[in-house]
Design goal:
Layout (H helix, E strand, L loop, with lengths): L14 H4 L5 H18 L5 H22 L6 H15 L10 E5 L6 E4 L3 E5 H6 L3 H16 L2 H8 L5 H10 L2 H6 L7 H21 L7 H17 L13 H14 L7 H4 L4 E8 L2 E8 L2 E7 L1 H16 L8 E6 L2 E6 L2 E5 L2 H7 L3 H26 L1
Parallel strand pairs: 1-3
Antiparallel strand pairs: 2-3, 4-5, 5-6, 7-8, 8-9
Length: 386
């Protein structure tokens, strides 16, 4: 579960989002009471019976959520979330559950996994995720709580304290709720929450390795949420924190990716410096177009085939997250090329000179300048958006 991060300063969640005169703390408290009742009534029996009991517990808590918050009905939004969620759920330890994914209208970024495979996302967190890789990471994290039976572990752990208090603290991820309900009992909740969140993060990496989405999305999603929290001014809840800090989680995921031998290339998962190819006609000849973040940056002779070759080199170079200073035009004898870092992205060919009516030197310098501008613009955008 991802903690509710809080709305940005000066941009509070609307009353329409929250429901009439109901605070977020009261809302999640009611959800926790509903889930408590369902869990206490559910027998811990054989596997099929346990599954049925969890599904019923989740259904009751979900009904409470849907009484308080409006569901998003946009077919495109729901199709995307369900398609990715189902693909992730299929590779978990419990694919047989009736996994269901819903989006509620609330601008606070948050997500919650209920027993039995019922997962809710807020519209706010969908606005934060930048790519399908990050959305898959979010859904994989939430699915892990269900697949690894974290709700049952919460119930067993709570025998030493109070099940309701554990549920409220973990479900709300809200320091104010925890403080108001006097939830901290000897530090048990804080340590327990950290263990579950780290376990879900690590499991999400493993799940995504079995899907079309990149497991580095878990890392970039956490970095994105950490950036948002810094901008929103949400402070560290200190003793009431029931989750690891973002930096603790980021370090743990980095370590897991390294352990699995996965390079920490954030570009594709986070959706920056996106490279695409296209083809145009210039005076009846095919011209390859290489786009960066949707904008045409390089035009080369040879049509799409050559553009694909250039794009492959750019992909390799961009994985190193270059700065504009890493781009240069290089002339050796009569040959001019463009390098990004140590990668030779392209060599200016005779067809380029003929088609565009420019010298090889001028074309190489223009290509280099356009790449510098594209990289600089991408960095400005990332600095603002995270």
């Amino acid at each position: 579960m991802f903690r509710a991060l809080g709305a940005p300063p000066g941009n509070p969640s609307s009353e329409a989002d929250r429901g009439p005169q109901k605070s977020r703390s009261d809302f999640w408290g009611r959800v926790a009471f509903g889930l408590l009742a369902a869990l206490l009534a559910a027998p811990a029996a054989a596997q099929p019976a346990e599954d049925r009991a969890e599904v019923e517990a989740g259904r009751r808590a979900g009904a409470q959520i849907e009484r308080e918050l409006r569901l998003v009905t946009d077919p495109a939004v729901n199709e995307r979330v369900t398609r990715i969620g189902k693909a992730v759920a299929a590779v978990t330890e419990r694919p047989q559950l009736p996994w269901t994914f819903k989006v509620v209208q609330h601008r606070t970024p948050n997500a919650v996994a209920l027993p039995g495979g019922l997962i809710y996302l807020t519209s706010g967190i969908l606005e934060l995720v930048r790519t399908d890789h990050e959305l898959a990471a979010l859904l994989a994290h939430e699915a892990a709580h269900v697949a690894l039976r974290h709700h049952r572990r919460m119930e067993r752990e709570a025998t030493r304290t109070n099940l309701l208090l554990v549920l409220v603290a973990v479900l709300t991820r809200d320091a104010r709720v925890a403080a108001g309900a006097q939830l901290v009992a000897g530090g048990v909740l804080s340590a327990f929450g950290r263990e579950l969140e780290r376990e879900a993060d690590v499991a999400a990496v493993g799940y995504l390795l079995q899907t079309p989405w990149h497991p580095v999305g878990v890392l970039t999603l956490l970095e994105r949420l950490a950036h948002y929290e810094r901008l929103s001014g949400t402070g560290d809840p200190g003793a009431f924190r029931t989750h690891p800090t973002w930096q603790e989680r980021i370090r743990a995921v980095e370590a897991e990716l390294v352990r699995r031998g996965l390079p920490l290339h954030r570009r594709v998962a986070a959706g920056f410096l996106r490279v695409e190819v296209d083809e145009e006609q210039v005076r009846g000849e095919p011209v390859g177009v290489v786009r960066v973040n949707g904008q045409p940056v390089l035009r080369v002779s040879g049509g799409r085939d050559r553009a694909v070759q250039v794009a492959a080199q750019l992909d390799h170079a961009f994985n190193q997250d270059p700065s504009p200073l890493d781009v240069r035009a290089v002339g050796v004898l009569e040959e001019w090329s463009v390098r990004v870092g140590e990668v030779r992205v392209l060599v200016v060919q005779a067809g380029d000179v003929r088609l565009f009516g420019r010298s090889a030197r001028d074309l190489a310098q223009e290509y280099a300048q356009r790449l510098r501008e594209a990289i600089a613009e991408d960095r400005r955008r990332r600095a603002l958006q995270g």
